[in-house]
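Re-run with default settings, no changes from the original entry. Doing this only to confirm the output is reproducible before filing.
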Amino acid sequence: MEKNKTIIVLGVAALTMASCQLKAQSNEEEREHRKRPSIEQLFKDLDANEDGKLSTDEVKGPLKDHFAKVDLNEDGFLTREELEKAPKPGRKGPRNRDN
């Protein structure tokens, strides 16, 4: 009977450790997903007609929501230069967790 309890306790411990490892991997993947793409990556992913500009039909997400703010010359397209000059979104959450 004591041997069965030991096996059960070890099994539960192993499952707990595996669960913690999966959670850590999930958190790391989530952080990686939240990184802002580079301007080059945006053009690679979104410039469907490969004209070197992004139209409102090509963009999505937060960039689409703030298109007018980024489109400095108001021509209906975003260029690399406009994206470089675009205001950066504010941080969500604490800047320094040590304080």
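Strands lie at 54-55, 77-78. The helical segments are 2-34, 39-46, 61-65, 67-70, 80-85.
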